[in-house]
Amino acid sequence: MPFTLADGRAELRPTGLILLIGAIGAAVANWLGAPLPFLLGALILVGAWSIWRSAGQPDTAARPVLQTMRKASISLIGVMIGATFSPSLLEQLPQLWLSVLAVIPFVVCTHAASFLIYRRLAGFDAVTAFFAAMPGGLIEAVTLGEAAGADPRVLSTQHFARVVLVIIAIPTAYYLATGIVVGSAAGQAFDATPAGLLDLGEIAVLCGIGIWLGRVLRLPASYMIGPMLLSAIAHGSGVLDVASPRWLLSAAQLVIGAGLGVLFAGSSLRSLARAFGFGCISVAVMLTVAVGFAAILAPWSSLPLIALIISLAPGGVTEMGLVALSLGISPVAVTVHHLFRIVLAVSIAGWALPRLRRTEQTGPS
């Protein structure tokens, strides 16, 4: 049946409650100084509430209003990722060509290793294992995987583990080695440029045209990839220089976190703990490979060893940039590597997906 206005009104109260719970979780996580507080805080508390409320029974409620808001928020994230492609960032590429190219074998190696962990050890189906193993962003991997038919609850858990463990491991290891506090705990920020109404209007236009463009080009997850590519072209060419307000980024992450959290209804704590355990194994492998690649590249790169490790570590773009900023390393250089990692991971996903589906239908050889 088509979704009607009356259905939308009926969804307003439960959607408002979910967002309120997500906001509480985000506020607590932000107060604690947690990484990605608005995304992960909302995901954790809404997820816990959904598990408690469902009492182990699957929740059949579609939550169309919340999921529509989640898609709109994902398009905002796409625009903001694309906005980091400034002319100054592109000017640094000639100096970083060696380490940027090293991202290609790094992504292939870590993706393949994690895929085997989730496919052989965890027993996930091929599509879910593939997207759970993606060394890309949490939002990107879950969005692409969900569109491909993977289990979004599993993907959320695995990438939640990846982002949190990487963000915790690197600053903690550096603190133990040097005694210097880095990353989110240091309270650093990328850009404090205030955003005006014109910036908000340009962001809305980029979202709308980008989603349309993504659909016309039949891009995977068109409501994210389309706006990201359009924004990257506009900012990389110098046509636009949009200031992304921090409150809008926080709000978008809150909605996405809450939207993912409701998908955990019907899950058990045992299944989540099991998934998180395999996530720890995957992250350990990824970080080991990152350190190995960085050690090999260090004598030939213009970046120091710690900068290379941060540039390769499969954490969040923003959080890894914050760590770099705290260490006096150009966050632009780190961002180049991480954006290339995400674009490459998404491209590999698009190429491999039809083959994975055929493998899943015929069974492993």
From TrEMBL:
Tell me where the transmembrane regions lie.
Answer: 12-29, 35-52, 72-90, 96-118, 160-183, 195-214, 220-240, 247-269, 275-298, 305-329, 335-353
Taxonomy, superkingdom: Bacteria
Q: Can you cite an annotated GO cellular component? A: membrane
Cite the InterPro entries for this sequence: AbrB_dup (IPR017516), AbrB_fam (IPR007820)
Q: Tell me if Membrane is a UniProt keyword of this record.
A: yes
Q: Name one GO biological process term.
A: regulation of gene expression
> What Pfam families does this protein's entry cite?
AbrB (PF05145)
- List UniProt keywords, sorted A-Z: Membrane, Transmembrane, Transmembrane helix
Q: What is this protein called?
A: AbrB family transcriptional regulator
Q: What is the lineage of its organism?
A: Bacteria, Pseudomonadati, Pseudomonadota, Alphaproteobacteria, Rhodobacterales
